[in-house]
């Protein structure tokens, strides 16, 4: 399920080997960890946010972020099998298309939801009058639906271009079939899709979040009655994790555009891109871990059960806002445990 044309061309030119290279081994490890941690982690988030806590604007955003991650990690065994079999795709053309589409849907949906969370925090704290009037559950659900539609549209080109090809020795690869013969059209389509992915799925959200958090930090320094530090740290950590995981992929994707004319990149990209993709996919299992690690009671309270700890953490995330939003009666048992 590599996203790129260049990797697919390399797969065409080389016979699959019977052993895994170090790049393939690391890639399989990264994807296996993402699957093993991402399925239960995101399932717990969805269970608690969707069924155990009251619906809030913030909880709806985090719930849909977890849904995007869970859908994606369910497809990871297909890619793991693809790598283990020496880049042989035995699942057919339609799963080839669906697998790549789900990966891009997850990337776009995740960054859009993180951007929305950042804008929501900014509007809620800096423009409370506007927030009080328009920041409702109904409006949030409409924005969530719009976000899913936009992510679907941006990821949909792979449903057309992704294809399978049978090579010698009955090896089938899953690759981007931009055009079977016209090199100029191949380069044009590759450039357009890569830059759209970079601008919409990375650069514009990055600029938006930098502006939001810069203004928030300036405002927080001027007031002690703004937001819970727990929520601010949680959201910021999730955002930073996304960009740490996905930045290498976007860098190498842009470098790959030069590979059509620069042969010196042919030795670097076949190793760099699979590792960058593996790191990007790790992001899908990190968010639930960050939610728990950033709970203020994690290191000071040991008497609560795991479910109580997780539920308490998500209560903090979904209900944190201004100081007036903390009804003490709703704090769970673990919140009252004795600290070391």
TrEMBL record:
Keyword Glycoprotein recorded: yes
Main location: membrane
Location(s), subcellular: Cell membrane
Keyword Membrane listed: yes
GO cellular component: plasma membrane
G-protein coupled receptors family 1 profile domain boundaries: 41-291
A molecular-function term among this protein's GO annotations: complement receptor activity
PROSITE patterns named among the record's database cross-references: G_PROTEIN_RECEP_F1_1, G_PROTEIN_RECEP_F1_2
Topology within the bilayer: Multi-pass membrane protein
UniProt keyword list: Cell membrane, Disulfide bond, G-protein coupled receptor, Glycoprotein, Membrane, Receptor, Transducer, Transmembrane, Transmembrane helix
Family of the protein in this entry: Belongs to the chemokine-like receptor (CMKLR) family.
Protein name, as recorded: Chemerin-like receptor 2
Record organism: Varanus komodoensis
UniProt lineage: Eukaryota, Metazoa, Chordata, Craniata, Vertebrata
């Amino acid at each position: 399920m590599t996203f790129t044309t260049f990797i697919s061309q390399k797969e065409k030119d080389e016979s699959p080997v019977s052993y895994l290279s170090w790049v393939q081994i690391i890639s399989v490890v990264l994807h296996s960890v993402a699957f093993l941690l991402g399925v239960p982690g995101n399932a717990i988030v969805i269970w608690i946010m969707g069924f155990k806590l009251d619906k809030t604007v913030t909880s709806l955003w985090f719930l849909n972020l977890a849904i995007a991650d869970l859908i994606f990690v369910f497809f990871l065994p297909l890619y793991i099998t693809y790598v283990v079999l020496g880049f042989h795709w035995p699942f057919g053309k339609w799963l080839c298309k669906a697998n790549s589409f789900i990966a891009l849907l997850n990337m776009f949906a995740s960054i859009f939801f993180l951007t929305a969370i950042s804008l929501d925090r900014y509007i809620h704290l800096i423009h409370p009058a506007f927030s009080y009037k328009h920041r409702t559950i109904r409006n949030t659900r409409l924005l969530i639906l719009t976000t899913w539609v936009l992510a679907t549209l941006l990821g949909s080109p792979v449903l057309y271009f992704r294809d399978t090809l049978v090579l010698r020795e009955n090896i089938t690869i899953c690759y981007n079939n931009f055009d079977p013969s016209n090199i100029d059209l191949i380069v044009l389509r590759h450039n357009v899709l890569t830059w759209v992915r970079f601008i919409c799925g990375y650069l514009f959200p990055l600029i938006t979040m930098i502006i939001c958090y810069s203004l928030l930090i300036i405002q927080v320094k001027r007031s002690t009655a703004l937001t819970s530090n727990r929520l601010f740290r949680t959201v910021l950590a999730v955002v930073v994790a996304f960009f740490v995981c996905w930045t290498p992929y976007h860098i190498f994707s842009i470098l790959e555009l030069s590979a059509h004319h620069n042969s010196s990149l042919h030795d670097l990209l076949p190793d760099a891109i699979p590792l960058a993709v593996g790191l990007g996919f790790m992001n899908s299992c990190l968010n639930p871990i960050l939610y728990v690690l950033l709970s203020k009671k994690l290191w000071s309270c040991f008497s609560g059960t795991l479910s109580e700890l997780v539920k308490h953490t998500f209560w903090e995330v979904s209900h944190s806002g201004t100081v007036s939003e903390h009804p003490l009666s709703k704090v769970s048992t673990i919140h009252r445990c004795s600290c070391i």
